């Protein structure tokens, strides 16, 4: 395997401290993805330069001009504090003619916008929840066509930001209050989606043209009580103690109806191409009680720490973490 010069591009606040060297360190939760990718690249034999960015392209320009990397490993999820601007950085890398890992600018633009991606998928006859967008700084208009319950979330933010049990709304008053909270919290637009009662599934896809779909993961709820909705809130996603308390767990999907896994595989490959994704992505789906499969979100460049869902799914398919990181690099070099 050729030794490469790799620029590891991260948010400036997520540059792992030099003395961070073990998983018992309480700071590890903050830097886990960056630490895992950095150490794995070094263990693979690559020479790595860590570059932090916020709202200025100068650091990446200087690194490219002075260090002449073979590839940029992109872990940025926003630019200037705005997740909608992450594709600007990737566009800049393309203009600089430097290979990079993960998704291209067009795929990022199409998939990050939850409403736009749903419109595209629906046009191609892929089931998506009914939805309404509520732009920031506009008053919420009443409508008789809304069908409750609904889930209110940010139009652009990822990682379940702003999603809580209170995001599940059953009437106009709850909807108005939650939309206002999302506007204030994210300083962006909100989207309210039809709540699909059913199983929550996650599907990891790897590739540019030839696609690999990894084993399906599922979010399961064992000990929930009345009033607790089965959904991936921010606490569910990031608070391990909360998951333990409520018996919530991620596992490989079991006992799917005959043919469902094959249908999901075909669906995700189709959605990947519709949204012009490449590199790696994760799809969030709901298997409704009626047996229909609904595409909830497409997530280009999902979290890839060693203990993230994407990495678990890859490992189940026989691709260990070191091999996964190298495959992501290889795809970036061939894009």
Descriptive keywords:
335 residues, alpha+beta, 3 domains, six-stranded antiparallel beta sheet, four-stranded antiparallel beta sheet, 11 helices, globular
Portion in helices: 25-40%
- DSSP, total strands: 13
Give the low-confidence spans.
none
**What fraction of the residues are assigned to beta strands by DSSP?**
15-25%
Secondary-structure element pattern, one letter each = EHEHEHHHEEEHEEEEHHEHEEHH
> How far is it from the N-terminal to the C-terminal residue, by CA?
19 Å
CATH architecture grouping of the largest domain:
2-Layer Sandwich
CATH homologous superfamily label of the largest domain: ATP-grasp fold, B domain
Output mean pLDDT: 92
Rounded Rg: 20 Å
Structural class based on helices, strands and sheet pairing: alpha+beta
**CATH fold-level name of the largest domain:** D-amino Acid Aminotransferase, Chain A, domain 1
**What general outline do the C-alpha atoms trace?**
globular
Main sheet specs: 6 strands, antiparallel
CATH structural class of the largest domain: Alpha Beta
Total of domains = 3
| Count of separate DSSP helical elements | 11
């Amino acid at each position: 395997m050729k030794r490469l010069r790799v620029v590891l591009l991260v948010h400036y606040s997520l540059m792992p401290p030099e003395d961070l060297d073990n998983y018992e360190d309480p700071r590890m939760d903050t830097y886990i993805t960056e630490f895992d990718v950095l150490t794995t690249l070094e263990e693979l034999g690559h020479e790595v330069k860590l570059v932090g960015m916020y709202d200025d392209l100068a650091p990446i320009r200087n690194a490219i001009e002075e260090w002449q990397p073979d590839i940029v490993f992109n872990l940025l999820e926003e630019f200037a504090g705005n997740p909608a601007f992450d594709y600007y950085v990737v566009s800049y890398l393309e203009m600089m003619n430097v290979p990079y890992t993960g998704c291209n600018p067009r795929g990022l633009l199409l998939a990050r916008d939850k409403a736009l991606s749903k419109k595209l998928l629906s046009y191609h006859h892929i089931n998506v929840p009914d939805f309404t967008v509520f732009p920031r700084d506009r008053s919420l208009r009443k409508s008789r066509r809304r069908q409750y319950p609904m889930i209110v979330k940010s139009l652009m933010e990822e990682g379940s930001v702003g999603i809580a049990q209170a995001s599940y709304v059953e009437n106009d008053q709850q909807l108005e209050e939650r939309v206002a909270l999302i506007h204030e919290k994210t300083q962006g637009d909100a989207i309210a989606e039809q709540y699909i009662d059913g199983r929550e599934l996650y599907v990891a896809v790897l590739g540019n043209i030839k696609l690999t779909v990894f084993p399906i993961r599922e979010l399961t709820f064992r000990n929930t009580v009345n009033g607790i909705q089965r959904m991936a809130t921010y606490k569910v996603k990031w608070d391990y103690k909360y998951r333990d308390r409520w018996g919530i767990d991620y596992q490989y999907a079991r006992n799917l109806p005959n043919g469902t896994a094959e249908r999901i595989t075909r669906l995700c490959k189709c959605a990947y191409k519709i949204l012009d994704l490449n590199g790696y992505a994760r799809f969030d789906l709901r298997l409704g009680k009626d047996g229909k499969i609904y595409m909830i979100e497409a997530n280009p460049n999902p979290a890839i720490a060693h203990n993230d869902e994407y990495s678990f799914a890859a490992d189940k398919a026989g691709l260990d973490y070191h091999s996964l990181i190298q495959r992501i690099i290889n795809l970036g070099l061939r894009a």
